Amino acid sequence: MAKNGPTPQGSSQKKSRKFKRHHFKNGAALFKLGDAVSIDKVFSVGDQVNVTGLSRGRGFAGAMKRWGFRGGPKTHGQSDRARAVGSIGQGTSPGRVHKGKKMPGHFGNVTATVRNLIVLKIDETKNELWLKGQIPGTHQSLVKVKKIGHLKNTLALIDPLNPQKAAKQELAPEPITEKLPTAEEAQPNPEKLEVK
User: Fold this and answer.
1) Can you give 34-78 as a three-state secondary structure string?
2) For residue 64, how many other CB atoms are within 10 A of its CB?
3) ∠ CA 111-60-91 to the nearest 5 degrees?
4) Residues 139-181: pLDDT tens digits?
5) What is the pLDDT of residue 92?
6) How many CB atoms lie within 10 A of CB 47?
7) How large is the greatest C-alpha to C-alpha distance in the chain, in angstroms?
């Protein structure tokens, strides 16, 4: 095989994934061709984002794993129906299986979007974006992060490095400053009561 020739099929050498393009709806005039866009110019702590990526491929999966079916009874004479689909339709009428029926098949490896994730931290030195929630896809897969809004109350965010400290400081109830009446003050005075 030549040094710069084609790699054989099934080779461990994979093509490197690159960020190819970006579309600006507004603010395209702020950037010039070749400018480096840092992550802190686009996002800020407390932003709500949608993350779109390719979900993990799980191959051919049964109905219980793919759709969360409960399965059949495990007793009462049922020996091989524990993970079966069960009934897939009616009888002579309509005489067919309806389209879109949940059945075993290829699971995963489709475009998935996780909505309303929150930006917890922005690391400018490593150019990293920390999000609260799950991200679709495998390790080091490409994802599209779209900003959809901003949290009004950013104090409710929990610090990922020290969640207990943040929860105590930010989510603790405020102390009561009003003076509570004593037992004598709370009881009514019978001399002051007017009888009609």
Assistant:
1) CCCCCHHHHCCCCEEEEEEEECCCCEEECHHHHHCCCCCCCCCCC
2) 15
3) 100
4) 889 999 999 998 877 655 655 555 555 545 544 456 666 776 7
5) 95
6) 21
7) 113
> Using H for helix, E for strand and C for coil, what is the string for 129-175?
EEEECCCCCCCCCCEEEEEEEECCCHHHCCCCCCHHHHHHHHCCCCC
**Cα–Cα distance between 9 and 90 in angstroms, integer?**
46
Question: Which 3 state secondary structure label does DSSP give 14?
Answer: coil
For residue 94, cis peptide bond before it (omega within 30 degrees of 0): yes
Q: What is the pLDDT of residue 12?
A: 54
| Amino acid at residue number 174 | E
> Is the pTM above the cut of 0.70?
no
Rg (CA), the chain: 30
Question: In angstroms, how far is the first alpha carbon of the chain from the final one?
Answer: 112
The type of residue at 118 is I
Beta strands 128-132 and 59-61, pairing class? unpaired
Q: Which of 3, 49, 21 is nearest to 150 (CA)?
A: 49
